[in-house]
Amino acid sequence: MDDLILEKTIRETLKKQSGAVRADGLSGQRIRTAVSQRIEEESTMKRFNWKKTALVAAAICVLGSITAVAVGRPAYTSTHSSHNEEISDYAAAVAGEKKLDAAAKSVEKFENGYQFLYAVPQYDATHDEEHNVLETEIEMGYTYAKDGFDTVSLYKHRIGIVEELSGDTALALEDGTVLYYTKTVNKFVPPDYEKTEEDERMIAEGMNLAYGSSEVEVKIGQSVTWDQDGIHYSLFTFEEDLSADELLAMAKEIAES
Amino acid sequence: MNETELVRRFLDGDREAFEEIINLYQAQALRSAYLISGNYADSEDIVQETFVACFLNRTQIRDPEAFRSWFYRTLSRNAWRICKKKRREQPAEELYPEDEPRTEGLLDQVVLREEERTLLEAVGRLPVKQRTVTVLYYYNDMPVKEIAKTLGCLEGTVKSRLYAARAELRKAMAEYERKGEHAWTILS
Known about the structure:
heterodimer, B: Rna Polymerase Sigma Factor, Chain: A, Arc Repressor Mutant, subunit A, 0% strand
């Protein structure tokens, strides 16, 4: 088929098929009503997905605890936060962070379009095997968004124990800082969940198991971690469309800010 | 009032301006979402989610003149998200089903020539990002530069997706024509 005829056929076929969709006052009214209802629901539930924020915090927490177990003494870490403390102004978040334990680097906007959405204080604790609290810390967790949906979170804490970083890919910066990229499977389970044999096998292969979710949920996470000036950074996302290179570039922007 | 002024009013928090934007955008948005997702039920969800995101994230839109690109980027991403979720349960052949149940939003079946039906099925088999570029280019009449801005990618990426999509569609049409010629040969 001639190129011009092909182009004409594509154009005409799509326009013809689109004509199947009724777009009159009735469908317009239905959409307006549904949109209004959704906006009211979202406003009531708080404008962003708090559950997702909690899952990110849990995933980062588990990543941290795996490192901790490797060095022997502390057994696990825990974290909690409250959306009542959400800060939606970047300057206010940075000012608030300066009063906390782990004031460190952040950016308001990334070159790829992600920009600051909100920040919330995270209350972290390191426990031993008998559940005694060895250390507590308050850090500011930053959430960035693109197009209002895709989110990337930045968490930081003081380097309290000797941690050995590793990842699937590493990127060395000019100042000697090394950024480590890791892709992980995260399984979120209720507090009373009992591990299966399959879980044990998956954990041995690198899966993170995080307790505290209301239901069992498996999500792929991507993170870039690095240590710089006595602070441990984690840039984390559940967005599968974001590539490793893009996440590393975002981490580089923070590290070099 | 022109569109930029309308968007500016909306960004300033004018709810009536938002209603007018819905009126202005919903028909083409619904049809674009239908062509990308391949079925009507999903297209309504995609468009609703897009308008909701539009309202909730209006503070992120700094330039009123970039609204159309922002809107279609959000719509495309919503469509990809839904298509990705459905991909595991819905074969590509089932896109644009001829026997899709009639709903309030769908008119009686559009009558397509066999050649057009073949082409539409081939569009349904394209990877969703190629299909999106094809719809934005051929249905929404967007130039390559605007598609790149809309999807947040390089113009070269848009061109290569269009090229790959055209190659697939050309192949499908060549196969269709070959079958036609083959039948003629037998008859002769």
